[in-house]
Records
---
Amino acid sequence: MSLLIGSITIGLILALLALGIFISFRIFDFPDITVEGSFTFGASAGAALIVAGVNPLVASLVSFLAGMAAGAITGVIHTRFRINPLLAGILVMTALYSINLHVMGKSNIPLLSETTVFTWIENLSNRVSGIDARTIIIGWEVATRDLWLLMFCFLAILMFCCILWWFFKTNIGTAMRATGDNDQMIRALGVNTKWMIIAGIALSNGFVALSGAMLAQYQGFADVQMGIGMMVWGLASVIIGESIINDRSVGMVIAGAVIGSVLFRLLVAIALRWGLNPNDLKIITAVFVFIALILPGLLKYRKRLTLKRGAHA
Amino acid sequence: MLKINNITKTFNPGTVNEVRALQGVSVEIEEGGFVCVLGTNGSGKSTALNAVAGAFIVDEGTIKLDGVDITRWSEHKRAKYIGRVFQNPFSGTAPNMSIQENLALAMKRGKTRGIGWGLPKSLVGDFKRLVKPLNMGLEERLESPMGKLSGGQRQALTLLMSTILKPKLLLLDEHTAALDPKTASKVIDLTQQVIAKDRLTTLMVTHSMQQAVNLGDRIIMMHLGKIAYDFRGEDKKRLKVKDLLTLFDELRRKDNIDPSVAALLEEYYI
Ligand SMILES: Nc1ncnc2c1ncn2[C@@H]1O[C@H](COP(=O)(O)OP(=O)(O)OP(=O)(O)O)[C@@H](O)[C@H]1O
Ligand SMILES: [Mg+2]
């Protein structure tokens, strides 16, 4: 059970990543691989600042801004220099690898003995419920502290979802969605689509970096490798969410991304529990996303086949 | 109002694919003028409209709108003064957004878009009132996504969106060409109403000579990136489809002869 609670908590933290991918991939149809670098960038910047004694909330905010800067650079490379989205992302991701090493000074920063956002929550839990308190839910005993962490992540994610939903309903957010939907149309309505893409990819990477910073604080370390495979991971979350919630309105897709992220993390935890080799995790994620991407086409094809057969019979 | 002075545009200059799409086009349209643009395929009609709309910057020449030189302005900056409807019904609307969201986007054409609510409740009533005269039953479907509508419905809405804030100039590029005849004539009726109501200055490209004869107060015929004929006032009113056909044939016949030979012949015979 405590494994379950931990998985849901991590799923909620990675939901920030899924929200970022939702912005780049679904709103702008922009396959942005910058996230693999900016996820680590957020983690490394946050960790380095926390080690330097900066307030962990401020450090997380700086991580968000750092991710936005990285995304903005990808956006500029793509819009101003007309480099295709994938290549623009690869350039920034590669550059970020060196930057991350510089920011951390080494390939790994432990945070276990530092004060993070989660230490605050643990302290709060200890003060309110007592040290080492246990709670029984549906017959299982879990550490009350873990429930506090879960609640905190849930509320934080809820807040970010509301902000994001509100943003995409404002005038500028609506124009952003239109940019991804039909850029010619929205340009004819007076919107600078280049700026919209730059701002959107920046926002996306801000969320991704924040996700990295939170994960580093939760697991107690930042590592230069931790961004690898994160784009596909986020994509898997978004796709799972979309298949569960069959509604394409902004609010529903945002909710779907969060639910997808938590479910995907749970699935992975269960698979690992059942003896899946952790080394195989990434290939399985990749195959899963591949299938999810081609499935709608396959279903349509099968439907056509059966229709044809029906016509022949 | 609109003053185009000797603009040129060459695509892919210096390559085998070089196309001199505009070769010195000059035209002046007064306020409230409604100009139909005719011409053979590839004569540069769309390119001329795109040059005015700012899809690209012209190589030479100037474009002035209401006395302001907009030659070097970006497309989105010009959009503040220019409304557009495209040939492709899918080009003018955002398919995954609702009808009312599309209309709300159009209400902000050329204005700064801040963090105010994108679709205020107060606007929905206005939208219903605006959409009703289209007689397409869309007032009951404002929340459905644009992508679910037919080409004709989308084109009618694009027309509405481009004129919802009165533009200084309306550009229509064969906006009925992709529609079936019945829908096309409906959209043409709407076009006429909108233009008449607000006395909009309009440039309309069309392939239908009947349309050109029936509508507007001036006909420009383009050929090989230049303006070949320009009829206005009484001349335009007298013009029949038959006359236009004759002119087209004449242009085609000239085309088949080498330009230098044609010039020689002209000198001899005219
Ligand atoms: N973006 C572009 N790149 C290269 N060539 C172009 C481009 N746009 C137009 N052209 C060429 O410029 C010429 C004029 O094209 P344009 O689209 O203006 O013709 P048109 O008069 O609108 O024709 P139609 O009646 O077929 O729409 C054509 O030869 C076309 O191939
Ligand atoms: Mg054309």
Note: Residues 2-227 of chain A form one domain.
---
Amino acid sequence: MFRFEAVIGDFPVLLLGIPLTLGLTFAAFVVGTVAALPIAVVRIARIPVVSQVALAWIEFFRTTPPLMHIVWAYYALPVVADIKLDAFTVVTGALACSTSAQMAEIFRGGILAVPRGQWDASQVLGLAHWQRLWWVVLPQTLRLILAPSCNTLVSLLKQSSLAAVIALPEIMNRGWILASETFRPIEVLTLVAFIYFVLTWPLVLLSAALERQSSLAFRSD
Amino acid sequence: MAEPLVVIDRVVKRYGAETVLDRVSLEVRTGQVMVVIGPSGSGKSTLLRCLARLEPIQKGRILIDGVLSAKGTEDEGPAPDKTGGHDIGMVFQSFNLFPHLTVMENITLAPRRVRGMAAAEAETQAIELLRRVGLEDKRDVHPARLSGGQQQRAAIARALAMRPRIMLFDEVTSALDPELVGEVLKTMRGLAEQGMTMLVVTHEMGFARDVADDVVFMDRGAIVERAPPDRIFSQPAEARTRAFLERLLEREGGTRRER
Ligand SMILES: Nc1ncnc2c1ncn2[C@@H]1O[C@H](COP(=O)(O)OP(=O)(O)O)[C@@H](O)[C@H]1O
Ligand SMILES: [Mg+2]
């Protein structure tokens, strides 16, 4: 019943989507993570209004699906606000927003996990608040959050397939088109899944290794 | 006589409804070593933390060398000048060394980032300090590779790198294996001999006897008694002090060593 030989010749067409998939993933991860740090810091700081805005941002993007953000930004924004963005920007932006919410929570957990004595010691030494954060707390936070960040990257790579709905020719979109052209959706989508597996598996292994390492090697005082 | 280096004036510190320091007043002169003793929960750590500006106080004031260092948040009057300086060094029971930095980097971080000292100068100073605490061969090691006693001496060197005029020690030997206590106390004795003004919370009665100019007994957030060590140990004026010292000696019992 399955006839992979009917679609295997088109496999390279799917592979051509890899750069775009990786590009979307990488761009969204970098933008999202860079944005996440100030969001997390502000959220912890309990500054009136600003901290609430940060919290609202986090909760909104953690509780609503990125597919909705993509569709909304791509189809509604031009009508409502006369803002027309290209598909790559829309997907990158939408995924970066949810990544920023997720990573902000990861950063927050990592910052709060650094013992209070580290803040105390650096404060008595005269370091300003941002210096304590930058030179003492964040380097320790980074080691703690490597594994969960890696997990975020894995789910982001899979979520980049949402770009298919607005016709960005990444892996999933190419799979859909190929499936309708060949009338072999099961075979094609199996190949698509295989490509995602090959891309994410090393990251999953890396995440597990990081988790093992951080639970073993790194202890503060 | 010259004005005291440290003036703690009727300081009140509360956590929520609990009053942890109840109008505590204490003066320490330049070069004096003050040992603070008292039962657990009596407010010793809190007193040091308020001095180090780690905790705000609700009432009273703290002066360092005549300059306002902290003032009650519930009191009127101008706030202290925050740029006041880094005149206080503190050493903690749990060391609190920065685990991601080498011993050298632990010591040079604040001089470089706070004082803007050049790297070479900060390192020269750090090497001198490491010699003083007997760790000159550990400069490039991370704290996790040091024994507790070595970590604590590194923490002392780190605090000294900011050239404080007052050093606060909060039960700095309590987390150490017994055989490592001596090396840390020796470093502290050395500091005292060089004229450092020190406030030391400790249960090391040998240290108090030999090094302290005065011993302060605290109980339930108040200073009960202050006297030179020979007097407070032989004939405490207050019943509470006597009861505490008796319990302490009993507990130390057979394990007492002369240090
Ligand atoms: N951060 C805090 N929040 C609430 N209560 C505290 C805090 N730190 C200390 N306390 C309370 O203050 C009292 C004095 O504590 P502390 O100064 O640590 O005593 P000591 O060092 O003499 O053992 C204790 O009752 C303790 O529970
Ligand atoms: Mg204490």
Note: The mean pLDDT of chain A is 92.
---
Amino acid sequence: MEMIRVNNLKKSFAGLNVLNDVSFSVNKGETVAVIGHSGSGKSTMLRCLINLERADGGDIIIEGEYLARGGEYPPAKESRRICAKMGMVFQNFNLFPHISVLNNLIYAPVYVMNEKPVSAKERAAQVLKTVGLSDKISAMPRELSGGQKQRVAIARQLMTNPDVLLFDEPTSSLDPQLTGEVLAVMKDLSKKRMTMVVVTHEMGFARSAADRVIFMGDGRIVEEGKPEDIFTNPKDERVKQFIGSIII
Amino acid sequence: MSYIIQLTMSMLDGIKYTVGLFGITLLLSMPIGLILCFVRSGKNKVLSSVVGAYVWLMRGTPLLLQLYFFCYGLTFLPFVGQYLVMGRFQSACVAFVLNYAAYFCEIFRGGMLSVDTGQFEAAKVLGFSKWQANIRIIIPQMLKVSLPPISNESITLVKDTALVTAIGITEILYFAKSAVNRDVNVSAYIVAAAFFLALTYALTALFKYLENKFSF
Ligand SMILES: Nc1ncnc2c1ncn2[C@@H]1O[C@H](COP(=O)(O)OP(=O)(O)O)[C@@H](O)[C@H]1O
Ligand SMILES: [Mg+2]
């Protein structure tokens, strides 16, 4: 089943074409890694999927429903409903600094999805366990390390039971020794067949955990395929160079 | 000594105007300022410029002028003037609330600009509507940044209440001034100063407490 379908996505910022006719799809249970040089439009593409950026043209179809159709969007309430099936994890975590870890986890379920606080708290304890942070339930965000913050951010988004999780360079602002704990959580989700789109510079992750790799360059999909093919036998010259320049 | 006590007692009568004006102004101008801040930062360009012009007007002219305007000037407005007759204390409240709302608008706007855009985005991807996000996520973080300038502004407000003596409201300074003239003795000014110091001291303590509470 197609969870995400993108046709001829176009986006420009003040005359600069950032996305030129990007088309791809993501199937249920798939982990797709998006790689490429910085500035190639990876973040913009991901942000368009969840309506943090508005596409100028093209279709974005989420689980069969049009978020954008020929660059036209439904009313805010409708687009919010469609995007509620997805979640996103940011490079800078974006935890809510004024509330505890527990509240970071239960705010959306309680205030947006009208879940009973008691049941949300129970689930929060379980979800925190799966990311290995049971002991941090009453901590404040500032008391956490970067890796712990990112694991809480993942847990927070898991609390909304998304069908699709988008990651924008989730380990890029972490010290190298902290990336492992976050990647482990992501690999675990991937194994459980969570549908994931992961923009990353972690080639090890893309190679071992992704079902498919998309290489972006200059706002286009340059090459796309199975990790083995992309990493060992890339066809496009730019991909060859990129892979060659990275030590895995 | 009994003279000082007698002065204090007579001034206590004026304190209701000082504290009343202070309380009413703070209670009303802060929420109005917050609303103005959201309009000012909102998508509607016209409304945003209207608020911008309003803030410019209120901050760019003396509060005393605004006080005179609302107390003595309003009734002379063509057509509507006759419907705008207010008591002196009422008109003082209106002038103060409108003036301070402009300052609070700018303070809150500073607070809002300090909140990282990532906070809006995180709230959005978690499904929050704009208003839910503002109320649960953005405003608490704005308040933290806004508290020190709000504290400053409130202390200024305590002292600004003395201005209404100019329109004949019998607040602390009004009593002090008449006592000094009547008794040919400066003590009344010192007693009045003590009143203001006590009020600003209490405020400082309150805001210190609040700032601690918001030190997440
Ligand atoms: N909000 C924005 N305003 C203007 N230009 C932007 C904005 N966001 C991204 N860009 C530009 O779009 C291009 C692609 O950016 P981005 O999608 O962040 O690339 P990547 O994530 O692959 O590094 C860059 O040239 C960047 O400067
Ligand atoms: Mg990026």
Note: The mean pLDDT of chain B is 94.
